[in-house]
Write a structure and sequence with these properties.
The chain has 247 residues and is of the alpha+beta class. It has helices at residues 12-18, 29-34, 49-59, 93-102, 110-131, 150-159, 172-187, 197-207, 210-216, 218-232, and strands at 8-9, 39-42, 64-65, 80-83, 88-91, 133-134, 140-142, 188-189, 241-242, 244-246.
Amino acid sequence: MFRLVLISLLNATVVAAFVSFSPPYRYNAGTTTALSMAKVLYGSQGSRSPLCNWAAYELDVPITMGDLPKNPHPFGQIPCLVDEEEDATCFESGAILSYLYTHADTGDSQKRKAAVLSWISWANASLDPICFLETPEGKVYDTGLIGPNRRVERLDEILSKQDFLVDGGFSTADVAVAAYLLYVPQFFQGIDLARWPNVVRYMKDCASRDAYGKAFGPQVQNYLVKSLEVMEGGESGGEKKKLFGVF
């Protein structure tokens, strides 16, 4: 579970810039009851739920934000997706991405579908623990991207030969992988990822997408794009600073 809970804030001004609620995140308890057979996402900024919004925007799948007190997640966590048409409840961000992808009308071949679903699983099983180091209590205290990493080096090699992860262009696989990568400079200001130039280029391309800005907000998008441009130029971002005191 992605624990970006805003318990201790180092700078209220910076936090306000990052946690800017655009219309999709304004909860309205009456909204979900007014729409029949809707896909309802329970989540908030500062959690993994915006990456689910990002995927939905890219897939052109309409979703409604749910009233958090009604969240049906068995452990009370977010994100959680309810598909009223299918009478289905899906929780954990990777599972939600897979659900949205497989229920969207993408026209993808079985080969492409297999690749997309594999990358979504890899993002959650392998990349997440690299990006976010946790205490035994589950609190994020640092990122594994401060030093060399073989998996990320391999990812950089892959992206040196192609723009996105799967043949045929941008996909939900990129939402899964890029979202985790992009959380790192967002929450650890000043980190320098320039040792992986192709990953940095990839991150900037993904963060520049309209759907990313719509899901995460223009302030976050602008900050990340500018930070990644600095990394592309080979300029160090300076000393790493964690944006929030406790995740």
